[in-house]
Each structure stands twice: as C-alpha cells, then as structure tokens.
Specification:
Shape of chain A: globular
Helix content of chain A: 40-55%
Radius of gyration of chain B: 18 Å
Strand order of the largest sheet of chain A: 1-2
Largest sheet of chain A: 2 strands, parallel
Distance between the termini of chain B: 45 Å
Number of helices of chain A: 9
Oligomer: heterodimer
Structural class of chain A: mainly alpha
Order of helices and strands of chain A: HEHEHEEHHHHHH
Chain lengths: 226, 141
Amino acid sequence: MDLPVWQAMYEELGAKGFVPFAVAFDSAGKVAAEPWIAAAKPAYPCVIDMRHIVAELYDMVNVPTAVWIDERGRIVRPSESAGATDAFRTLDRKTFTMPEESMKEMQAKRLAYQDAIRDWVANGAASRFALAEAEVLRRMHTPDDNQVRASANFRLGEYLHECGFPEAAQKYFDAARRLRPESWNYKRQAMSLKDPTNPLSASGPEFWNAVDELGDKKYYPPVEDI
Amino acid sequence: MAEISINLIYGDRVVPGLAAEVRGAQLWLRGEDLERATGWTFKPEGFCKGAVCIPVPPARAAEFAHGGRYNLAALAGILGQPIVADEEHRTWCVGEAAAERARTLRSLEAPDFSLPDVAGRMHSLSEYRGKKVLLVSWASW
C-alpha cells in the first residue's frame, strides 16, 4: 500500500502546488479501506470508490494506477502503473521472500516514479514527464464494446452485492472478468468479496494462478519513460 | 404482458420501482418513467435528450414505441450502450457506450467525480483545480 508514500510526497511537495488524490477501489467500502487509511493518516484527499467509477472514467485496470492532471484539469499522463513493476512475481510463495535483485528493482522503480513527480512539480509543462497532447493520446487506451459491457456487468454485480445477494453478484463479476480479462481490479475485487473474512483472498492461490496464466505478458505494463 | 416493478441502474444513478413490461430481452417503460430514469423522451423526430435527437427508422418504429411504452433496450442499442439484466432480482443496468467513453477520455479534460472519505465527507476532483494532481488508485484487497 502506497498511502504513506503519497503522504511523504505531499509533505515534501504540497506547498509547491502538488496534491495526491487517492481512490480506494473497494466494494466492501469503509470497513475494508479504513484500517489502511487510519495507519497512513493521509492529509490529502483519500476517498472510497465502492463502484469503481474512477476505474471506469479513467480506464484503470489495476492498482496502483495513476493519472497526472495539471492545474487546468488536463490529463498530462494517462493511466499507467504508479511505480509498480512485475518484480513481485519472483516472490517465493512458501517463504514470502523475494530475491534481493527483485527488491532492488522494485525500489528503483518506485524511486524513479517519485523523481518523475518531483520533476513535474518543479518544471510543470516543461518537464519531460508532462507529456504533449499527441503523446498522451498515443499512450491512452479507450474501452471497446466488450470492455464497456464488462463495466456494466461489474456495476450490476456490485449493486447486487450491496443489496445482499453475494452469490448472484459473482455471476456478473465472472462475466466482467471474461469480457475484460486484463482487469485485475475485477478479478481481485471479486475474489475478495467471495471470501471476505480472509484478508488474503485476493492474493492467494487463485490470484497466483491468474498471474501464472499471464506467461510472458506483463502484470504491470512497463512505463516507457520512467 | 404483465407489468413488473424493476430497479434500473443508469449512469451513476439507481432508479427503483419502475413499472416495466419485459418481453424477452426488451424492456418497455412508460414515457414518463423513461424520461425520469434516463432523460430521454420519445418525439415524432425520434428519441430526444436536451438538444440531441436520435431518429428512429419509420420501418422499425414498432421496435421502439408501442402502446404508450418505449423500449429502453432498443434505445440502448442505437446508442451503443451495454445493457445487462438480472431478471431474478428485477434489476437492469445500462452502461456507458464505448464511443462516449472514448470521446470523454480523448478530450483530455479530466472527468470530474465526487466520492466520500472515511468520515463520509465528499471530495470532488474539481476542488483541486489549480494544483498538480496525482490521481492514484489503491485497494485493501
């Protein structure tokens, strides 16, 4: 969880006009998100998005995913991994340890991402990380018909879950997962709601099997310039 | 065809208790309910919302309007909106069209939203206009 990282960046850069706006994709709501928020004590806005509406609006399929928005409310970097990499895939699933090399790679990417933010805050539109419109558009993914159908299925599932029909909800979560298999948000949210008392339900065997099925494909598509 | 009471998820709203007739995949609403739930009305020129009117081919008019009821599934079809139904719980969900989603995203204007924090206080993205915002997702799971 990166909430403490964004808090440190806010303390460092808040006076220079920077603000993190954190969104929790948590259909279980406050109950699920609150312990993490209480521990991080964020002074920046930290909201709970039970329906994953921000994921839909900004076409986010994973966490942590970020979009950079400038002072005029314009997108200067579209949805991309916020400093996370696939190094976690080298985790030893029995001992929960990772090779030192992977630890270093993870840390280096996180720091590079934070440095890119610092550069943007210092240089604004002149920062090489604040992309020109054509480049934002080139990198931006927009959903196709199947993917908006996935959204509608997820929304129906989330609503049924909220109304107290968890089994019916899973049917629509399954449809959303089939229609948009690249969305880890759909997959892991559904796993978590299926087994809500198990805090590792979205990072257990079902999760790792899905990660293994990726084969050579990336869990976090690499960011070209960071 | 018997009338049943349904819930409709439309955009960011849930409209409960709409009197609907369901025929297969078709969902027929009364004119006033269609307007209340979706903002669309049926006029001689077609389905209209604000200044926008979508013409209905005269040869296919019966698919859209019949006996004072209007077919929301057919309207969603011409708008490219996905529609998903759970008949057991009498709930229908109409989503955003892919073309509309793409148009919004590709304008590069950050779409606004309002969501609550743990204390229930609402925060809108637009409150932070004038700042550099890192909009970033996370999850407890």
